[in-house]
Amino acid sequence: MNLRRRTTALLSVAGLTSGLLLTAPQPASAANLIKNPGFETAGAGDMPYCWEKSGWGDNDFTFTTTADAHTGSKAMKVELTRRVDGDRKALITESAACAPVVTPGKQYDLGLWYKTTTPDAAITLFRHDTTAGWQYWTDLKTLDLAGDWTEATVRTPEVPAGTDRISWGVSVYGTGSATTDDYTMDQVPDPVLPPECTGTAEQCANGKWDVLPTQNPVRSMHSVVLPGGKVLLIAGSGNDESMFEAGTFTSAVYDPANGSYKIIPTPKDMFCAGHVQLQDGRVLVMSGNKGYPTADGRIGYQGYKDSYIFDPETETYTKTNDMNDGHWYPSATILGNGDVISFGGLREDSTGSVAAELFSEAEQQWQPLWKVNQTWSYWGLYPSMILMQDGRLFYSGSHVFGNNIPGTGSAIYDYGANTTTQVPGLRNKDERDQSASVLLPPAQDQKVLTLGGGNIDSNPEANRLTDIIDLKQPNPSYVAGPPIPQGTVDMGNGPVPQTGNQGKMYVSAVLLPDGKVLETGGALHNRANPVYETSIFDPASETFDPVAVDPEARGYHSSAFLLPDGRVMTTGDNPGNGTWNHDVSVYSPPYLFKGPRPQITSVIDTEWNYGDTQRITVDRPIAKAELIRPAAVTHSSDPNQRFVDLPLSVDGNNVDLNVTSNPNLAPPGWYMLFAVDANGVPSVAKWVHLQGPQALKATDASAHVHDFADAPKGKVAGPGKKRVSQKVSPTVSGCDRHYGSINVCVPTDFPAEVKKTTAARCEWLKANDYGRLKVNGKDDPLNLDRNRDGIACGKGDVKRG
């Protein structure tokens, strides 16, 4: 068999494919599922019975059945004396006679005794899929250096559907040796205690929404959860031209502990900026609004070059050096080395920026253009660029304002090679405007879900589409997911049930600590017709479960994000008539009504390094633990949101957590650490800081990377011709500026069901509360001022329509 192909898929020495379900510390089955666990029975060749050689890459190695055993007379020694890449491992033979039979949905305790002379050794699992055959599954635990015989134990994730057998062993991926003996594998007993409902039956099934008594004092469209749990809410001018003209730019810090807001002096109009948490917890804010469109619509929004850092300790902004270009609506993705890369947005002259920007973590400044690899491509506005586990970027196809990029609408970008490979399968690519994309739990699975969307330019009814891609596959392609459940939509006369294919744009998607995804909010059209629907997506079953609905409209400029206590907060709504919803909602998911919450009673160390084993204590048995990166969300987009599973080793109430050695899976920074019990009930999060300078400075930072997404069939392109910018229509926001004030959005294209008559258009504007609309200048492209009195949709206009 092709050993390299057998290892194509995931990387991560602490990888996982689904949540570890660790129930009460009851004994597992006494039957060891491993045949020849101590290598005592000889095989037909030079390997013991039911064991085989495996591995890949450029390295020199030996496999030795040695007499230096833990028990009995034999053990297995795997040694690398030279390594360029790859690994070697002794695995249970992948055959029906030798590979242990497993049951989907169950978990297994794995154990072995070992000695090592290298820190680069890990327990590696493969699984047999009844359709696809043998394939790499995950790595569970890095083995510490050990000169004497040492026991290692770990619990597997739940066995995926379609899997009937597994094989496993120890991978050596650095120079040195690992000697192993006395393997054990036992099935974990099923949990026995069902949850007790502590709320109403409705709350236990669907959760509960509360509208907070205190309103958000600023028109915030950017929400960043800070280390410690406070929330930075950035408004800038808040899409209000009068604020812009007055130089009134605002931010606020919200404290969930007491419900208070603190207004923060804000130096520039950060309306529609980009933002991301740096490794030390400070927030990098890039670009923003230099100028609103002109009243005649000939000049659009303009982005400035300024950049700032917000310090959560002092709650102040400090200016950095300038970016090379303006970027109104830029992307912002933190990389595994702590650098930040940014694409897209609008320049100072309202054209589209084709400049890639790189903020250096080491230098704490934006790099000059000549130091940054350039595609010279226009990636659009808020393109969703998700860091993959090998350091490449996956452009999911979620973006803002109008059509997607040319081609398939989705791509893998390799910064080092400076190549872009188109990825197929994204349906209706030009109707994914303000869809949401999320790296599904756990990050080790490398699956991305894209939900909903519409199109500002053509303004069709938003769709219900979801598409899922597995980036572990050698030739990844989106496949159709289940449709978003339908709710109600307000067409101007109160909510009515959605019909046909009506879905929503302005979708919010939030990772939950039980390993599921909350999706909520949205609207049917461009800044109009709010949709009231909330559901929870289960990545394991790929199904939606409709739950309680946010009572507030959450369309354009809304945000939703996870709080450290496990609740979800939602803010904002900015419909086309220019109004703003200052009400704040908080959702308590069903897991908060399923009995007492587990508690993390101590965290031995809050400073974590890659590849660490970190110990916590809990007040009772837990099912799994994970790191969730805090939100930095705007316009349905948070490409840095991720959920990283932590494999467990358990001794009573002491739990050892195995931290991934791969910074691309969990980029450096502050994370919320949750412990979750067997019923999916999470603890309140503890904050831990993951940095690991040793791992980041290693000469071989990709030390155990299994290839994946390594044979995409899409079109591959290198950098294009060097150019200054991309021409972009000044109506990029889908608004006709000939009518009303600048923060009022009369659609350039009305919904398809609205007839192209003055009367029908004016009726729609009235139903959506647009009020009095002054005509700017002499042009009337939508024919709304028939009597030429300078007021659109006046009595004389409608009567003559």
TrEMBL record:
Keywords from the UniProt entry: Signal
Domain Glyoxal oxidase N-terminal: residue ranges: 251-577
Cross-referenced InterPro entries: Gal_Oxase/kelch_b-propeller, Gal_Oxidase_central_sf, Glyoxal_oxidase_N, GO-like_E_set, Ig-like_fold, Ig_E-set
Domain Galactose oxidase-like Early set: residue ranges: 597-689
Signal peptide: 1-30
Domain of life per record: Bacteria
A biological process term (GO) from this entry: carbohydrate metabolic process
Pfam families given in the database record: Glyoxal_oxid_N, GO-like_E_set
Entry protein name: Galactose oxidase
